[in-house]
Amino acid sequence: MNLMKTLDFSIRSCSYNDIPAVMDVNEITLPENYPLFFYEQILEKYPKTFIIAFKKDDPKQIIGYIMWRVERGHSSFGLQHVKKAHLVSLAVLQDYRRQGIANELLLESMELIREFKISEYVLEVRVSNSVAVKLYIDLHNFKKIRIIGHYYRDGEDAFYMAAKTSDIGSKQISSQNSGGMTDKEIKQYFLDKNQGYLLYNCPNCGSLKIKALTYSLAGSVDPNNNDFVICADCNQEMTLSDISKGKFNSYK
Ligand SMILES: CC(C)(COP(=O)(O)OP(=O)(O)OC[C@H]1O[C@@H](n2cnc3c(N)ncnc32)[C@H](O)[C@@H]1OP(=O)(O)O)[C@@H](O)C(=O)NCCC(=O)NCCS
Fold it and tell me: Does residue 111 fall inside a structural domain?
């Protein structure tokens, strides 16, 4: 049960004093952790877009953060060489999720980083992180551009996602995958790879889901595994054993 539905939060730029608390949030929420000097460098170079969320009634309690850096490289949408904002890290503590904090951190920081004259936003996200993928696609117009194999230390692949600055804030409804990888292409990628992932469609809304399997399980799912998976698109609950029995049209 979420007791924090009426949380009053606010956001502000990070300060050097906030970094230890930001590191705590990062270490609790994500396996990708960084040394102190890494945060200090981001803060030194991009002080306005390193933003934190805190509880209004307890400003010292940091509950979320976002960091970006700026780089040059090939466009995800054409052949040009462009300047891009690259999402370094975004996280919100478990107890404070689903209240619009990440959305607010993204909105504010994506607006502020435009002062670097960037033309695209880019990020990597675990292929199994359907919650974050949904946030980037539905609310911020990102597209799945390609899959980067073994991007994470534990072997999981990443979606490389990108959005054009000109598409942000345009309020136009973007259809999922338009201009990015289609579900068919994503399925084909994993079928060719043939290990490490379970692909299935949500039985309720049909959206494509990707579950990263530990390598000892690669190629099969323990039929007694009753861990629940919740569809980020429609909240349908299903168990891994249901999926492994083929009830949900899985692709191994
Ligand atoms: C991803 C994460 C940052 C989202 O933070 P959050 O503050 O809960 O997100 P928001 O409340 O702003 O959600 C915005 C939208 O994202 C999507 N979303 C967020 N959480 C969701 C969930 N549990 N199920 C389905 N959709 C979800 C929804 O579209 C939501 O909009 P809605 O509430 O109007 O439907 C948070 O879950 C988190 O910290 N996860 C662990 C770290 C992580 O994965 N970081 C991203 C790495 S790339």
Answer: yes
Say whether 241 sits in a helix, a strand or coil.
Answer: helix
The residues facing 126 across adjacent strands are 158
Q: How many angstroms separate the alpha carbon of residue 133 from the centre of ligand 1?
A: 9
Answer whether 109's CB lies under 8 Å from 49's CB.
Answer: yes
Same-domain pairing of 204 and 86 = no
Residue 50 in any domain: the answer is yes
Task: Compute the average pLDDT of residues 232-250.
Answer: 75
The number of the ligand 1 atom at minimal distance from the alpha carbon of 132 is 1
Q: Is the pTM of this model over 0.85?
A: yes
Tell which one of 6, 98, 176 to mutate to probe ligand 1, the residue whose CB is within 8 A of the most ligand atoms.
Answer: 98
- For the cut 60, the answer to whether the pLDDT of residue 5 exceeds it is no
The whole domain housing 16 covers 9-180
Residues 157, 127 contacting (CB under 8 angstroms): yes
Do residues 29 and 92 touch, judged by C-beta distance below 8 A?
Answer: yes
> What sign does the dihedral 68-69-70-71 (CA atoms) show?
negative
Residue ending a domain, choose from 152, 180, 208: 180
pLDDT of residue 91: 98
For residue 138, which atom of ligand 1 is closest to its CA? 29
Q: Do 66 and 87 contact (CB within 8 A), yes or no?
A: yes
